[in-house]
Every structure is written in C-alpha cells, then in structure tokens.
C-alpha cells in the first residue's frame, strides 16, 4: 500500500490492505505476496538477538545503582536505544533489500518475466555494485527513529501493563500471569508503536524504494515526500469536510444543469424585422 501510486491520487477510491492484496494476486500472482521474504527471514534472527540483548544491557546501564530499580524514563530510553541499535546494525540494510524486491511489478508466475532483482542475495549484490555500500543505509535516520520509537513504546507499555495487572491481581505476585493476559497486553503494546510512527514508516519506505537522485540531498527528498503526503491528506480532508458541510446545510453539490436551455434565435440581429407569420384566431 505504501508503494502504490493509485491510492495516493486525489479522487481515487480508497485502497485497503485487502483490495491491495487482491490486486497484487491478480496482476503478479499469489507468490508476489511473499516478495522480500528472504530478506526478512535472514534479518529477523540477528535483529531479535540484538534487540533483546541491547535492551537488557541498556537497562543495566540506566538502572539505579543503589536500589537496582529502573524508572519509567529509564525504561523508555532503554527501549529507544535498543531500537536505534538494531536499526543501524541490521534493520536498515534489510529494509532496503526487502523494499527493492517488493517494488518490482512483475509476475512471479511467468518464467519469461525476469525482474531486475531475482532474490535477496542478488538484490544486495546489485544495489552495492550499482549504487555503493552507502545505498544500504539510505533512510537510516528514519529507520532508527521508527525502530527506536517502536521499541520505546512497546517495552514501556508492556512493562507498565504487567505492573498494573499484578497490582490488580495480587494472587499472582511472585508468579506468572495467565497466558491470555500476557498475550493481550503483548498485542496492545505491540500495536501502540506502529500507531505512533506510521507516517515515519511511509516516508522511509518511499525514500528507500528508489536510487539517490544526483544533486538532491536526503533531506530534500524527505521534505518532498512528506510534502506530497500531507498535501494529499489536506486535499482529501478538505473534500470530505466540504461534503459533510454541504449535507449538513442541505446544499446540493453543483452539477451541470440538465434543464433544457431556452431556444436560441437564429435570426441575425442585422436582419430587418419581418411580418409575423402567425395569425390570431
């Protein structure tokens, strides 16, 4: 959805993830839904290892030396630092390779339709050969901001939810919470991160999709992408607000009139007046 241009045009129908998925299957085949899977699977193991290892290390670093207790602020910054660490070491190159694979509009069911990037390893090799090693870190600042805010919100929310559940259910103090409760708070805390940084992720994806433009800095490209996004949001909001206002006040949207226009006289204004052909009865 983030790579689609049709859904970003004013006046186009909204494209949800279901409709986008159906269109991808129709045009590119069912296997197209798994584009970039190799990059994700390859990067997920080191990413998770770095995330939890660095999070525990930052927690120890930010913990109160006397009491051994970490504050909510310290917990937030530990999650933020863990997210930035994984973004720099693993996530950014993985995202660049994954997005390049996903942005190819080719049919995976047609063996004659050969894409530029055949798989994750080939995409990695091609990007480095054609654009240099720095291309793998395009959008690293936005990726670090996304991952950092993700893990900061995720770990902080999950820890506080657990504390509140233990306070509400003292019988579980010193033991484990029921699995359905930990599952629920995990789902809620996991959703809070993406909700807080979805615009950042969209800008990052569009930035990493294409090669660098000569004479254009990353900040200029980010500003242009963000400007296009929010301009379309403003136009859509204005159109919806106008429709709601017109419906509320009872106004009708102006449409071309369908009433018959009065007949146009074909008599030249320079012609002399003539006698009427009609006779009165």
Strand tally is 0
- Assembly level: single chain
User: What portion of residues belong to β-strands?
Assistant: under 5%
Output the structural class: mainly alpha
User: So how many helices?
Assistant: 7
Low-confidence blocks of residues: 253-261, 264-281
Average of the residue pLDDT scores? 76
For the record, the CATH class of the largest domain is: Mainly Alpha
Q: Tell me the CATH superfamily of the largest domain.
A: Mitochondrial carrier domain
Q: Output the radius of gyration.
A: 30 Å
Order of helices and strands: HHHHHHH
Distance, first to last CA: 75 Å
- Helix fraction, binned, reads 55-70%
Sheet with most strands: none
Domain module count: 2
Quick recap:
The protein is mostly helical and 281 residues long.
């Amino acid at each position: 959805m983030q790579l689609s241009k049709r859904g970003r045009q004013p006046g186009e129908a909204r494209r949800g993830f279901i409709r986008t998925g159906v269109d991808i299957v129709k045009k590119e085949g069912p296997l197209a839904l798994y584009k970039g899977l190799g990059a994700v699977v390859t990067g997920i193991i080191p990413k998770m290892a770095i995330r939890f290892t660095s999070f525990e290390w930052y927690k120890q670093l930010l913990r109160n030396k006397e009491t051994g207790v970490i504050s909510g602020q310290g917990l937030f910054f530990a999650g933020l630092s863990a997210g930035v660490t994984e973004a720099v070491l693993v996530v950014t190159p993985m995202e660049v390779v994954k997005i390049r694979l996903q942005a190819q509009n080719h049919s995976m069911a047609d063996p004659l339709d050969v894409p530029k990037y055949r798989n994750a390893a080939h995409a990695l090799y091609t990007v480095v050969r054609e654009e240099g090693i720095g291309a793998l870190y395009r959008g690293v600042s936005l990726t670090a901001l996304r991952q950092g805010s993700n893990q900061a919100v995720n770990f902080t929310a999950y820890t506080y939810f657990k504390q509140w559940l233990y306070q509400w259910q003292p019988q579980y103090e010193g033991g484990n919470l029921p699995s359905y409760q930990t599952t629920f708070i995990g789902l809620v805390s996991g959703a809070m991160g993406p909700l807080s940084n979805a615009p950042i992720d969209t800008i990052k994806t569009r930035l990493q999709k294409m090669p660098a433009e000569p004479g254009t800095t990353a900040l200029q490209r980010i500003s242009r992408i963000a400007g296009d996004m929010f301009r379309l949001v403003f136009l859509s909001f204005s159109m919806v607000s106008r429709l709601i206002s017109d419906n509320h006040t009872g106004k009708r949207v102006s449409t071309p009139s369908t009433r018959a226009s009065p007949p146009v006289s074909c008599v030249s204004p320079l012609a002399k007046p003539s006698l009427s052909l009609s006779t009165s009865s």
